[in-house]
Amino acid sequence: MARMRLAERSDLPDEHQHLIAAFREPADLAPEYRHLMSGAERNVYAAFGRNPPALVAFREFAGSLWNDADLDPRTRELVILRVARELDSRYVWHQHGRIALSAGLPADDIRAVGANALERFDEGEAALLSYVRAYLIGAVDDDLHDRVSAHYDDGTLVAVGMLAGTYATIVRSMQALDVPIEEGFIGWDLANAPE
């Protein structure tokens, strides 16, 4: 149970009521998001909807970051999953475990992020996942930056940092408000993943 009442559509001004559910019609969404965003209300948006201007700003910023930051779906989802696991966010892991599967990430790769088994990944992705963890705890040093920069350009690292920071904000906000998952947890090991 959330620590505050989640917003309902009627709590928001008419022009913003749609923000508790999908950005767009399902056909306009990237395939990996369609099963999550097909008009269903999401608790993350209902929680943030208690402050409609903040919800509007969040949806605009996050949507632009997801769509326009020039991260391929695999990199984007690895970053988000790493944030979710490092910050122990069942909610974000649950949503993005399913998104990652829909985006084509192998279940074993997702499980490896969940188990911190970086040896499964090539040198570049292992460096990226280490970078995300270090970013979250404020411990990116010159050596790690050089290792990840050998595989990713400056623009990608900017996008990775912004994405990790955005998801850290989402996670900490949701944890502070104790926002529940809409359905049963997928599991860190994907034991409850849809077929």
Low-confidence stretches: none
Rg is: 17 Å
- State the CATH class of the largest domain: Mainly Alpha
Shape descriptor: globular
**What is the number of strand segments?**
0
* Beta-strand content bin: under 5%
Order of helices and strands: HHHHHHHHH
Proportion of residues in helical segments: 55-70%
- Helix run count: 9
Counting structural domains, the number is 2
Going by CATH, the homologous superfamily of the largest domain would be: AhpD-like
- pLDDT averaged over residues: 90
Let me know the largest β-sheet. Answer: none
**Which architecture name of the largest domain does CATH use?**
Up-down Bundle
Distance between the termini: 28 Å
Task: Walk me through the structure.
The chain is mostly helical and 195 residues long. It is built from nine helices and no strands. It has two domains: 61 residues, no CATH class; 120 residues, Up-down Bundle (AhpD-like). It is globular. It starts with 30 loop residues before the first helix and ends in an 18-residue tail after the last helix.
Short description:
With 195 residues, this protein is mostly helical.
List keywords for this structure.
195 residues; mainly alpha; AhpD-like; 2 domains; 9 helices; 57% helix; globular
Explain the layout of strands and helices:
Blueprint: H1 31-37, H2 43-48, H3 52-68, H4 73-86, H5 90-102, H6 107-114, H7 123-137, H8 142-149, H9 154-177
Helix pairs in contact: 1-5, 4-5, 4-7, 4-9, 7-8
